[in-house]
Each structure stands twice: as structure tokens, then as C-alpha cells.
Amino acid sequence: MFELLAEKKVMRDPIHEYIHIQYKVIWDSIDSPEFQRLRRIHQLGPTFQVYHTAEHSRFSHSLGVYEIVRRMVEEVEGVKEHLSEFERVAVMLAGLLHDLGHGPFSHAFELIQNHHHEYYTGQILLGESKIHQILADADVNLPKAIADIIAHRHPNKLLTQMISGQLDADRMDYLLRDAYFTGTSYGQFDLERILRTLRVADDKLVVKESGIHTVEDYIMARYHMYWQVYYHPVSRSFEAVLTSFFRRMKDLYHNNPISLAGYDMFTPFLRDDIVSIEDYVAMDEPAFMYGMSMCKKHPDKILSDLARRLLTRDLFGYLDIDNEKTIVEMKKKVEACGFDSEYYLTVDRAKQQPYQPYRGKESSLIWVMLKDGRIRELSDVSVIVQAIVKGEDKSDRKMFFPKTCIEVSNEQ
Amino acid sequence: MFELLAEKKVMRDPIHEYIHIQYKVIWDSIDSPEFQRLRRIHQLGPTFQVYHTAEHSRFSHSLGVYEIVRRMVEEVEGVKEHLSEFERVAVMLAGLLHDLGHGPFSHAFELIQNHHHEYYTGQILLGESKIHQILADADVNLPKAIADIIAHRHPNKLLTQMISGQLDADRMDYLLRDAYFTGTSYGQFDLERILRTLRVADDKLVVKESGIHTVEDYIMARYHMYWQVYYHPVSRSFEAVLTSFFRRMKDLYHNNPISLAGYDMFTPFLRDDIVSIEDYVAMDEPAFMYGMSMCKKHPDKILSDLARRLLTRDLFGYLDIDNEKTIVEMKKKVEACGFDSEYYLTVDRAKQQPYQPYRGKESSLIWVMLKDGRIRELSDVSVIVQAIVKGEDKSDRKMFFPKTCIEVSNEQ
Amino acid sequence: MFELLAEKKVMRDPIHEYIHIQYKVIWDSIDSPEFQRLRRIHQLGPTFQVYHTAEHSRFSHSLGVYEIVRRMVEEVEGVKEHLSEFERVAVMLAGLLHDLGHGPFSHAFELIQNHHHEYYTGQILLGESKIHQILADADVNLPKAIADIIAHRHPNKLLTQMISGQLDADRMDYLLRDAYFTGTSYGQFDLERILRTLRVADDKLVVKESGIHTVEDYIMARYHMYWQVYYHPVSRSFEAVLTSFFRRMKDLYHNNPISLAGYDMFTPFLRDDIVSIEDYVAMDEPAFMYGMSMCKKHPDKILSDLARRLLTRDLFGYLDIDNEKTIVEMKKKVEACGFDSEYYLTVDRAKQQPYQPYRGKESSLIWVMLKDGRIRELSDVSVIVQAIVKGEDKSDRKMFFPKTCIEVSNEQ
Amino acid sequence: MFELLAEKKVMRDPIHEYIHIQYKVIWDSIDSPEFQRLRRIHQLGPTFQVYHTAEHSRFSHSLGVYEIVRRMVEEVEGVKEHLSEFERVAVMLAGLLHDLGHGPFSHAFELIQNHHHEYYTGQILLGESKIHQILADADVNLPKAIADIIAHRHPNKLLTQMISGQLDADRMDYLLRDAYFTGTSYGQFDLERILRTLRVADDKLVVKESGIHTVEDYIMARYHMYWQVYYHPVSRSFEAVLTSFFRRMKDLYHNNPISLAGYDMFTPFLRDDIVSIEDYVAMDEPAFMYGMSMCKKHPDKILSDLARRLLTRDLFGYLDIDNEKTIVEMKKKVEACGFDSEYYLTVDRAKQQPYQPYRGKESSLIWVMLKDGRIRELSDVSVIVQAIVKGEDKSDRKMFFPKTCIEVSNEQ
User: Fold this and answer.
1) What is the pLDDT of residues B326-337, one digit of tens each?
2) Could you give the CA distance from residue D86 to residue A35 in angstroms, rounded to a whole number?
3) Which 3 state secondary structure label does DSSP give A274?
4) Nearest Cβ partner of B388 from A210, A384, A392?
5) Which domains does chain C carry?
6) ipTM reported for the complex, 2 dp
7) Which of A382, A400, B151, C360 is the most exposed place for a label (fewest CB within 10 A)?
């Protein structure tokens, strides 16, 4: 039995009206320093460079994921009955804590690290941390159960499905939240109706047939958010500069560690050692941005120029890549302008399928329960999803380089 | 030169914030009895039987279409330049007046008539009506120009495209409005962005490439509104009963006209003559509903039973049709219960493709202007739309019959 | 024990997302002909003449009141405990059915009747009606209990307070709903937070001190809705013409009943007898509007002119009344134009106080529970409400007359 | 003549749909490092500690103020005519740049400085900065004109009124924006209607009489936002700890500057010299938060404890102050717990009047133009505002102290 709060707490939230908290261990987890740190990490990394109001944090998003899991657990017919109280609390906490290991601008930041953020989430949950202690005090088996759910290792697949399938609390919150905070309408779909049409069957979460349209709408919302927001070329340009910045810093350090003396926030990530939990947790966006503003004054011209670009939004321009030759030619132009193409020319590819029926485990697919009780995979029953899955993939490959090298008329 | 109002008028509207009116002829048209009559016709016919707040009228919708046309004319780059003042006023009025010929519950009502509502729209605009006089007083050529735009006969295809293409002011208003008034989120799309990305090229309205995602979102909004709202089986059940009601009334009249003496609102539509404009305009929902409540007391058992069903929402049940045999069997059951299957068993098919690239005239397609200036049809450039167009059609055939005949567990 | 539905029903609603129905007697009441009739009565009477989208019905509003009562009963701490199941079901039904006795354009319509709509609500609930039968079948004491709650006669004042105090489900729904459907923002307030801060103390509903701001906001919302929407001079002008129309019809009938032969929908209301439930229920807006369109062709010039004005929105103009002399002068002008001032000049006064602490019974006041548990009347603890209550009353007296008599530049 | 952009730029914004930019000097100002820095300052300082989604920046708000000024200048009847192009551009830029001098958590931060943020705004605009250069390049008189408007020194009072009266672009944007990002409904009012009813008369901005209700609504929105959001005791608690943190740091520095060696971001603000523009601009929230995380490890127990409290939201509890004795008693308790009351007990008073008719200059009042053209001050014509102005002031005095000293049951 987990201890309840004397009085149920609520937190106002624009997406869910209120976040409801009843268990003490959940309240205490929110107040842990490792979770409070997520206030200092932007949910969408560099996207606020394009959508200026995308300034929300992983903290808010994590509360939202928790709230959706809580509603699944308490409101979806069959879920409560399928789960023990321990499992219910564990999966709510897994929703809350699934992003614990994120660092600043994770996508680019992970390039200079040996591990992904998922690795650090596990480390923080299971290692020497305040949050570990809070969880273990509530139930000694809790930290591992949560880490297992997040890492897809938990034997009860229903729990994983709630946190990270293709119709999970994580995606549902971020689509709605990112749409709200960017001010676009693309990410909207009918969360209430999805929750109302979820059921448990065959030990998995399924959608009733009458909910198919809402799920199609959700799939399209995802598709549009990817192309309109997440893959916006200006965000990718910021990440291109950031990647070069990291690469340059790492190269400088490897050649001469002394050249980065005093840049204490970065050094744990430049060494080849494993980063300690303490150092990892200390790396938040303020640390990162302050470090970047220090780098602006660094004697290395490339490092300081890249830092200046990031701080003042003097980003790279971009062009679509038709074939490999285009890259070779651009490389020449970049160098002709006096830039080191190692750091001043980067290439990336954005690709996204709104729904992948053939990939991943069963627990990540979306399942539909027909009126007659049969259970089918989504693309088998949705004409729209089937059409999209069979359709040609949209993909987009771009190169990024200083605007002064070649005239381009990019969006803002 | 058309006369302007002394002061620009505005009308508050939940979809467009304000409807802006500057021309006297537009203000006067709104105040005409034929247009005011549209306040007394539900925009979505029987849908308020399912979505209880879908109580908005064709009057509101018509103002909304006008407002979108006005914005196209005044804000879309190139449109103003392509059109004379006469054409601009004519197309705004065409937007305002395009639904003038609608009767109550048009879809079903047209079954007992010899003409569609489009025919009556033309009759009212060109015949002896107050609105005709208002328009002709402003410019003698105006009534015909408006009727031509609405009937796709106008030589300037741009005008028709604004009113009735696949991306026109009519559909854009009704999707947003119907979504708002039903309280669903399906019909939402980003009207602002569509207007911002429209241009004129090759004498037609085109969307800039950067607007493709918004148009895809609009296509999906349409698709979902059809299946979730417009084709909702309970609405179709209401229409099924209504159709039988009309059929019965017509049959009674043909056998014995005296039996409908006193039901003056209906008789003009039961005779084989042409319905006069005056009689047509007099037929609004109050007339219709009052007539129906009179029919509830009619000595003919079938007519009075069908009227009672409509007034108190005692609608038919429904079942999917697998093959023709299902219908034959149901017919037997209906008759075994003592019902005349002529009126107590009806069949309908709902079918909708979100976008039809191969059908209709060039002016009804959606055109995209690529970054390099080339113009392509939407399904050529949108991976999503292409996938949908190639996908299997969703279609849905149902039969409707008294619930007491066979137990069915239909949605409310 | 009241019978539950096999499956909980929900109805989509833009104000409350969903209306939730669990009891069979409630579902059956919604399907009763007397309740379905409310679909055919506009919630805001003539307001759609000004705010063209205010086309929602008393049906939708009644569902909304029911939903708020349901949430009070199920979610507000202390309410469930204070009430028996019978009382809970009764008060939910009282919320649903409180407007049953409304006729078309009630405010004006009541002028030609001997009774207010409250009287008819009681008659329908307690008399020979389908709804009476449904309620009595569920529990023989139910009809009277519901009628008592609505008529403020029920011994348990908590029940009355939920339906008609100054912070009741009725007002809370109509403010939000009318704001939504007119498209204004004035009526908005935070219903969620009000529900969260309600408690039961001293056998009455009280608001926790932390909810005072939300209640102040609600009081202001009411105030603004009155002046911006409910008392809009164009609505009052429609009512002025309507009142004259009724008066003229009544005068004609009294002088010569034969002159209204064939106008069957009106005659029960013109006789001095009591109107039967059946006749009353038959009078809905379609009957009324169809009757009006018949009157447009009536040989009496005044009656037909007033009907025409109502149908085509050729309403009266209006002016503020400074003193009694203004009226006398206007009377002369109206008659000089050839109008009978008996029907072509009317006077009304709009007056509204956002909150009345000194009037009405204890159960209609708003009570606040301080942090220390003491209970105080709202204006004792809210600086804002106190200021408003002490402030000068806003009142507005106007006269209405044909626009052709005197030039006025009224809003639209 | 100011240079226009080749193509009008727009930025998506949830409050205004789009921010529209036409002038090159405005676009360049947005891209200046001093303006980009505002991305790194929270609009509501510590409020995100209570309303977790209040994570928006002064950057977004500044764009919003600019957009409202732009609309005033382009859409309000009379404004365009009253202003030269130079004045129009200057006032739009004043809207954009009015918050340039804000530092992190300004309210508390200003306590350790000798100047308010207004002073720094002037310094940055007129001194050696990139933004100064951009403005001066566009027109040598621009920097001073902008600084004058912001500092209320400009001879054309209309300009000042648009930026900082009691009904100005600044307040209108922040109420709407803060309401949106906190997820509360209190700050909402009808901006569209206010803009529609603004006029210029007597060389000042006035509201037409028909807009009074909207302005009353705006006044109440302000009132509620103050008490529900801006003066929330948890925000004030954060500021209480922050103030103690600053005070402690300053005391340490004055006693022994060496003890803060290495805390470079803070030292310019601890010295008694004037802070240079460069140092000031370098102080953003990342610098501040990183400095705070360094302080967490500082050997001084008080400084490190206060830093820890701020970083992990271990804030002070609070109690209302009844009289001076309460403070004396609390001081004893705090010291009895082993805390230095100099830093662990603070007192503050929140007080706000929704509208002040008697204070400030004429240009800060709200003026109403009656139907007959007379111009009156708002509280002379609004019954509601008059009532509020005459009512008793609401004020709230609290003390803040470590929760461990005395048990308090504060909101979250």
C-alpha cells in the first residue's frame, strides 16, 4: 500500500486543465532535484528559434505524460482491473520520469557522448540519486520496475505500451502540448475520445472500432507536427551549428585539454570516461548556455564563431541535396569563402512515417477491437492508414552552411 | 461603382471573429426576406439529432462563406488585381447567396421534388423576388453574374473556384463551423495559413508549396467530418424516416388529393406542377415542422406514425448490408412485424473520397505552385494525398427499419 | 434504487465535452416528447437577431444544467454524503427539466398569458404528460419532488440552491453556453475551479475562500452578458414588436373571435380559459413562426405589418428616455406618421445588478467559507463585490418605434 | 522613409496568430543580440514555480507588444493620420524594445542594484550596443525618440499612451499572454473589440462609449491576474528566498570580496561601480542559474542553503501578518530553530488597485468618448469602475520563513 497525500493536490495545466496527484511518492518525486532539473531543459530543444513561443520544458511535458497515464489507469475500462496497485503506481511514475536522462538539446548533445539519454534515465533511477532514494523508500522494488517499464524490459507489456507504443501517453501529451505552445493547430486530436475508446483485450491496450477515426486524426497530427515543427529547417540549422560546435570542442580537447581549462561544465563530457550521475545532472541548459557564452570569448576562432552564431541566431543557410555532387560542389564554395568545411558544412536527412506497422514489437503497434471482438492491427482496418503506409516515404535531405557563402532565400 | 455604407458594419461571429460589410448591396441582400429565411433552415439538417448543439443555420454559414470570399478578394495576393470591382462584388454575393435555394432537410426533401436546390437558387436570383430586385437595382447585370458563378457557367473560372472548387470558401467555412457547433475537433484546420499561401497563377487559385501541409490537414478534416458527423448513422436514420414520410405523403396525394386538404404548406410540392418562387420560399423548417405536427394527427396510420417518429426521435435502427440477401431477409422480418416494408425499410450508401483528382473540371481541383514556379495538381506533389487517392474507397451501406422488429444495439 | 443503463451514455457537448448519463430514468426523460420539444425553442429567444449564431436551444442548455448538477452531486466534497440516492436523482432531473414550461420567445409570450413558464413546468411535471409517466414509473414520488425543487418548495434547501441560487447550475451553464454560441468572450469563467472549491457546510453549498476570485469573475461575467447580450437593444426591439403583435392579436380576438379562425396554434392562448397541457406543449417555435407567416397575409393591416416586420427583421428603432416628456413627444411623432401608437410605440427598462445580497432567501445568496471555517455572505468578504453592490445601479430605459418616423442611427 | 523588407515576414504566435513585420529596421532589431537575450529571461520571473507552464520569455511578450502597437498604428481610426512615418516606426520599436533592460527575476534582482530596469533600457538604447547601431543606422534620431517614448519624455503623449498608459499595448499583451501560458482564464478580454472601439480625440487615445464593457472586463482581468497569478504567495516566497540570497551575497562580498572570486557573473553587480552595458547584457537567466548552482557548493552555509532552496524549490512557508507583534514572535521562532532571521525571515506587502483614476499623468488614464463626442475619464462613466475605485483596497501582507520552523499548511 502506498501512502496517500493528506489532501489530493492539483496543478493547473493548459492541456489537461489539472494534473491530479494523490500518492505521496509521486509528489515527492516531482520535488526531487533530478526532476526539478527538467524545468531547465526545453522540451523542443532549438525549436523556439523558429516558433518563438515553444519555450516549454520537459518538466511540463513529463507532468502531462503522468496525467495521461493516471487517467488510463483510473478511467480506461479494464486497465485498473489488470494491474496491481504496485503496477499502477510504477507505470504512473514511469510516465513522470521517462525523460529524466535528457540533457540540453539532446539530439545534438548525444553526438559527443557515448550514451543516449535513455541510458542516463536508467542510471539516475537505479544509481546514487535523490529520486532513487525517494522511490526505494516507498518500495524497494520500485526503481527497478520503473526503469524496466521505460526500457521495454518489464514482463507486463501493457505497462510499456502505455508509456511507449505508437499510441502512448508520451506522444499524446507532446503532440497536444507542442501544438499549444507553438500556436499551431496541427497537433490537435481528440484525447478525450481516444481515452473513452481504449480497452484492454489480449493483455494489451486496444482501441474500439468506433475510435478509428480519432486515431487516424492522431496519426495525421503526428505527421504534420513532424514536418511543420519538429523537422523545420531552421531548427535543423541550429542543430547543425550545435553539432559543429560540439565537434570542435571535442577536437580541441583531444588535441590539447588545457585549452578548455575553466570550462568545467563541459569537461566531464569531453573526457573518454563515463560521466558521473552528479556531473550529468549538473548539465542543464543554463550550464550549457553559460558555457556557450564563455566560449564566445575563447581564443579558438572556430569555437567562438560557432558559439556566437548560436547565441545570436546567426544560423546556417540550407539547400536541398539532389545528389552527392551537390555536396562536393558546396564543399568547394564553403572553403573558397575561407571556412573549414569540417565544421561549416553539415548534412542531415529528415524522414518520418506517420505509422509503422511492420517495425518494432507487438506492444508498439496500434490494435483495434472490431465490433465482433476480433483484434486487428490498425493498418488492416483503416483505409487511410493503409494508404499512407503503402504510399511513398517523404524524405528530405539538406545541407547547411554559412549564409555568406552563397545566396539563399530561406524562410525567416 | 457600387455604393458603400456610411459606416462599415461588422457582425460578431465565432468562426471569423467578425463578418465585415462595406457595400450597401451586400447589407441589403442580408436584409432581404429570401436571405433572412435561411435563419429558419438548419445548416446540417437532421444532424442535431445526434450532435445536439448542431443547431446552426444556413444563414450563419452563408455569412461565413461571404467573409472568406471577401478575405480572398481583399487579402490574397493577385486576386484583387485579377478582378474588376463588378467581379469582386459579384463573387462576394455569390458566396453569400449560394445556398438561397435550400429547403428544409434538403437531402431528403429533394426526393419528392423535381428539382435540386441549385435550381431554386437560380430561380430566386433571376425571378420575381425581393433579392433579385435589390441586386438588379445595384447593377442590372448582377443577378445573372451571380447565378452564373454559382452554376459554374461564368467565363472567369477564378470566380467559380472561390465558391465551389475542392478548396473553396463554402467548404472551408462549413468544416470550421460544423466542427465548432458540433463540438468536435475533426473539422479544424488552419484557415489563416491557407489564405496566406493562396496565390493567383495561370488565372487560377493556387497554393504555394509551403502550404501543402495545411491543405493535407484540410483534406483530412473533410474526410473525418464526413464519417464522424455528416454520415453519422443516426442522421441517416432520421433521413430514412423522413424519406418514407415524404413518399407516403406523395402516394396519399396521388391516390386522393382530398386526403391532404388543409396541409397547405406541403401541397405545392405534391402536385406535378412547377413550384412557384413564392411557395418555395414559404417552405422553411417552421412550416415543415408545423406541417409534420399536423400530420401526427392525420387519419392515415403510416403517415401519422412516421410524423410521430420524427417529432419525438423514435428513429429507425440500422444494420450494415453484407449482400442483397440480407435485405430480402430483413424485408420479411419487417413485414412479419406488421410493417409495410415499402415505408419501413430503406437502404442507403455513404461514400466519400477526401479528394478526387480525376473527376470534375480543372477549376475544381487543387493546384500547387512549386518553389520554382511550376504548377502541379495536389495529388502529384503530396505523398499523403497520393496515398489516399490510390487507397481503397471507404464505403458504407446500411439498411434502416423499426427497432422493434429486430434487436440492434446501435449508438444512441 | 433507480435502474442503471446497461452502458453509460455520453453526448458530445462543446461546453462540457461530454454529457454523462447513467440512470435509465434520465435517459428516458430526455427522449420524452415534452423534453424533445425544447429542441424547438431558442435558448435566447430573439437574440439571434443580433448575434446571428445564438441559435442554440433550451434542449442543449437543459442538458448542460443537468451535467453541472451531476458533477456537483458526484464530485463536490460533501454533496454526495448529504443526499440520498432519491434526492440525487431528483435534483439531476430538476436540472434537466427546469425549463420544460418555456414557450417560444417566453419573455414576450408570457404577456398574453395568465401564467408564467414556471407554472407550466409544474403542470407538465405533475399533470397528464409522457414525462410525468416516465418519472412516476421510476418512483411515484419523483414528479412532486422535482416540481418542489424547481418551485423552491423542497425542504432540503441544498437541492434548490444547486438549481436556482445566485451561483447555480442554471446560470453557470447559460453564461458559458451563451458566450460560446454568441462568440463573445464575456460569459467565460472558470467552472472547473468553482466546482473544485465548492463544499457543503451548514447544510448549504459554500465556496472555499480560495475560490473567491473565480466567483468574482463569474459575477462580472453575468454582468457583462446582461448588458452586451441579453439586454442588447436590437433584441429588445424584436421583443417590442412581438409584444405589440401579441397585443394586437388579443385585441382582434376579443373584438371578433371569428377574425382569427384558422389560426389554431394561437387560439388556445387568446381565450380566457386555462390552456391545456396538450395545447401548451404543441406551441413551439415552428408553430409560432408558421402562425406568424400566416398572419403576414391577415387582412388586419396592423397585425400583418407587425408579422412582416418580425419575419424580415424590419424592427423598431429606439431612443433613450430622458424623462416622461420625451415619450409624449414621440407619441405625437408616431401618430403624425400615421401609426397607431398603441402598437407602434413601446417602452421598456433594463436593469440588472450583478449580485443582490439583500434580496431573496438565504438559499439564493452566495456563501463563502473562510480558512478558519466561518461562513460569510459573499459581499462581506469580497472587496470587489462589495464595491459593486454599493455602487449606483446601472439602468437603461428606452422607447421603440418605427424607424421611418424619426431618423435614428442605431447599431446594425 | 524607412526601408521595407523585400517580403513581409510573419511569425506564428498563439496570442495574435501572426506577428507581422514589414520594416527592415524592426526585423534587424529582433535579430540584435540585446533583443535575442530576452529569450533567456522568463516573462514572469519565478511564477513558473507555481504555474508550471508559465515558461514564456520577455522575447515573446515583446513581440506581442510590438504587434499590438502595429495594429493600433495601422488599424485604429485616426492614429495613422496623427503620426508621421518616423513616429509610427519609433512607437512600434518602443513597443518592441521597452523591456530591453530587464534582468533575470527583475523584481528581486533590482534590490541589489542601484538602478531599475528602465534605467538600463535607456542605457542600452543610447549607449554602445548593437541595437543602438541598428537604430541609428536607420535614422540617427531613432534611438533617442524610442528612449523618450519609453521614459514618458516624448512630447507626443499619444505615443507614450500606446506603450504605457493604463490601457496600453504592454498590459494588453501580458494579460492575454500570461493567461494563455499559465492556463488560467482570468486574463482574457476582448482585444479585437478594444482595438475596434479605440479612436483619437483631443490628441489622445480614447475608447468609444460602446467599448466600455470591454474595458471593464479588461480592468477585472488585470485585477484577477494580479491576485491569482502575479501575487501568488508561492512566487512571493521564491522572491523572498531570492532576496535573501542576494543580500547574503552582497554582505559576503562587502566583508570579503575574495570569498566570491570565480563567481564572475555576479561580481559586476556587487561592486559599487556602475555596471557596464556589456556586463549587464551578459547577465541573463542561464548566467544567473549557473551562478546559483555554483553557489550551492559555496563554503558559506547560508549562501549555499539559499541557493539549494531556489534550485530545488524548497521555498519558505508564509503566514499573514496581523500586526507588528506577529513579526516579532516569528523572529524569535526562526532564531530558536537556529536560523539567522536577517536572511530567514522576510516580509512583503502585495497591493493592487485595478484602476487608479487619481494617480499618474493624464496620459496614463483611460478616456471614454461619449456618443455626443464629450470625453470623460473612465471612472466617471463606468458604474463598475467607479464602485471599484471607491471600494476598500485589498491588500495582503505576509511573512516568509523556513517551513521547518513552524507548521503551516500552505498551498502546494
Assistant:
1) 899 999 999 999
2) 50
3) coil
4) A384
5) 4-229 (1.10.3210.10), 233-351+396-405 (1.20.1250.30)
6) 0.93
7) C360
